[in-house]
């Protein structure tokens, strides 16, 4: 198996003008990416995801750690000898070459005969939806078409790993969606191992088998999209994923106490948990102020502050005694709720998620 193994890889960037702490430090990353997996590195700008990608490509040298592909260590192997391909934010096509020759350029560097490389380039043009565009030049193509050509150029050499650094960030929303669908199909067809860098949560969730969330040079959590959303490992991960209902309390042996609520924990092993995360779809809104809580649920009282339409449903923001809570409600229910109205929110205890920090 040609797994991509990253073993305690780290990188520090020093400020040459000052003899102080590093300007940025990629903390030790330990990670295994399966052969044929679509793996995304997700995080805000400056979190270290592109630095990690450049280390994998050989464009940066690690200070510590190792990189292995299968049984071969490639930590100090030059970029051109790794048989990795990279797609950047910009297509970086050669303006003086037509698209066919652009795509075949890597094969030319590998001394592949012209007839074969042109045949393979034309075949790859068909895979990315650019059949018949081979004789055009880059400036005759749209931004989306240029990025398709860049993807074809990367794949034509049959790389062991395809590295992608926010390749769709410069495209408008409709083109980005189009490219996501294309990339997903291409990945299924070729089965190439992909390491994809993005700051877009929706993009990562749409494309990935697994996702690694990064922040401040740290790899915080690695999981599939469903597990990542339902069970974020920390409030930092939850916040980046857009979850708003994060309640801080004081941990105790029997429960996590908030000034107005106490939640009994399922077992004593959770006694160190200090934050409660409630997903908006787990909260049920009721205008019945007489509603009483049961032993299996928690109830909050509050006032509706905002109703916001969002992809077929509404997000309702409720001001409770201690915090703002956000819940998802249907369009029909939104018609019965108004700003300033007193409501109750309830959630089943089994649907709550606790984290320690």
Automatic annotation (TrEMBL):
Domain ABC transporter: start-end pairs: 4-241
Chain ranges passing through the membrane: none
InterPro entries: AAA+_ATPase, ABC_SmlMolc_Importer, ABC_transporter-like_ATP-bd, ABC_transporter-like_CS, P-loop_NTPase
Nucleotide-binding in keyword set: yes
Sample GO molecular function, one term: ATP hydrolysis activity
Reactions mediated catalytically: a quaternary ammonium(out) + ATP + H2O = a quaternary ammonium(in) + ADP + phosphate + H(+)
Its EC number(s): 7.6.2.9
PROSITE patterns attached to this UniProt entry: ABC_TRANSPORTER_1 (PS00211), ABC_TRANSPORTER_2 (PS50893)
Entry annotated with the keyword ATP-binding: yes
Enzyme class: translocase
Keywords of this entry: ATP-binding, Nucleotide-binding, Transport
Subunit structure as annotated in this protein's UniProt entry: The complex is composed of two ATP-binding proteins (OpuCA), two transmembrane proteins (OpuCB and OpuCD) and a solute-binding protein (OpuCC).
Listed PANTHER family: SPERMIDINE/PUTRESCINE IMPORT ATP-BINDING PROTEIN POTA, SPERMIDINE_PUTRESCINE IMPORT ATP-BINDING PROTEIN POTA
Official protein name in the record: Carnitine transport ATP-binding protein OpuCA
The species this protein was found in: Planococcus massiliensis
Phylogenetic classification of the source organism: Bacteria, Bacillati, Bacillota, Bacilli, Bacillales
